[in-house]
Write a structure and sequence with these properties.
This protein has about 300 residues and is an all-alpha fold. The protein has one domain. The chain has 13 helices and no strands. Helix 2 packs antiparallel against helix 8, helix 5 packs antiparallel against helix 11 and helix 6 runs parallel beside helix 11. It is globular and about 50 Å long.
Length: about 300
């Protein structure tokens, strides 16, 4: 889908909002995780906060925002609900493999290999959505992948053993599949409504995955990090809203790779706001490459 410069303006603004809010979401989650050891419960609380924070967007913008022909909840077809549940289920599986990998794979390795999700996104978009995949898109995605790797890779922080890396590859595939389900779903359900229910179903799925005791674990984190979680929830809600609205305007093979550039911005913002000073040359190089990749894929 080729858009003119004027037609690309509004979608581009949503993409920018999505990247910025994803960065804020990631940074606020890092603050929450400082001093916390229960990453699984923190993920549940973070997504729960985002779910509740989506509601004001629905109230002020309207449930049918950025969706033509909305006639109410009763008019949403089963395809929309199926895609919504599928997106949540795929995200739960992604989280499962990510947490499993975190026990055996170095953080630096996870950060780099998980970016394979943008290659999976191209493949799945072509197979399941019929989107065209040009050489320009492939090159752009490769550049964004290199940019992300440069931004997060640190010498000495990785061992590059094969044990567990396959778990990250599998997780990255489910991450991409979640976005594809989202793209499919917003063809049948308003993006803000889809965002709310997909996030709510995700929280339910994560709670089921963690089993008994999850409520008390989450409550403890909420009490200790209430303000940080409030900020985190708003950032997550904006990210969900921007992502799904962007899906109504652009192919998934464009939205997912551009949203992935948030990793680069997060690395830079982490250096400025959280005192993560190492690797500035790599971060700057990654930022330049990310801009080039985003420009190429937006014009593909």
């Amino acid at each position: 889908m080729q858009l003119s410069a004027s037609e690309m303006l509004i979608p581009a603004l949503w993409l920018i909002v999505g990247v910025l809010s994803s960065t804020a979401w990631n940074l606020s989650l890092r603050r929450i995780m400082k001093g916390e050891e229960d990453g699984a419960a923190a993920s549940v609380v973070s997504n729960a906060a985002a779910t509740f924070a989506i509601l004001p967007f629905i109230l002020f913008l309207g449930a049918g925002f950025s969706f033509e022909g909305y006639v109410g909840m009763a008019g949403i077809p089963l395809d929309g609900w199926a895609a919504c549940i599928a997106a949540a289920a795929l995200s739960v599986v992604f989280t499962y493999f990510s947490f499993k990998a975190s026990k055996v794979v170095e953080a630096g390795e996870r950060a780099v290999v998980s970016r394979l999700n943008i290659f999976w996104a191209l493949l799945f978009a072509a197979l399941f959505l019929g989107e065209s995949i040009s050489m320009q898109k492939i090159v752009a995605v490769a550049i964004i992948f290199i940019a992300s790797g440069l931004s997060v890779y640190r010498k000495g922080m990785t061992k590059w053993k094969m044990d567990g890396l396959q778990l990250i590859v599998i997780a990255s595939a489910f991450s991409a599949a979640t976005g594809i389900a989202g793209k499919f779903g917003v063809a049948y359900m308003p993006p803000l409504v889809f965002a709310f229910f997909a996030s709510a179903f995700l929280v339910i799925g994560l709670c089921a995955m963690l089993g008994r005791g999850v409520v008390s674990r989450c409550a403890g984190i909420w009490k200790r990090k209430t303000l940080d979680l409030a900020v985190n929830g708003v950032a997550g809600a904006v990210f969900y809203a921007a992502s799904f609205v962007a899906y109504t305007m652009l192919p998934a093979s464009i939205v997912i790779p551009i949203m992935a550039t948030a990793v680069v911005l997060t690395a830079i913002a982490g250096g400025i706001l959280l005192g993560e000073k190492e690797g500035w040359v790599q971060k700057i190089a990654g930022a330049v490459l990310a801009l080039i990749g985003a420009y190429l894929i937006a014009g593909a």
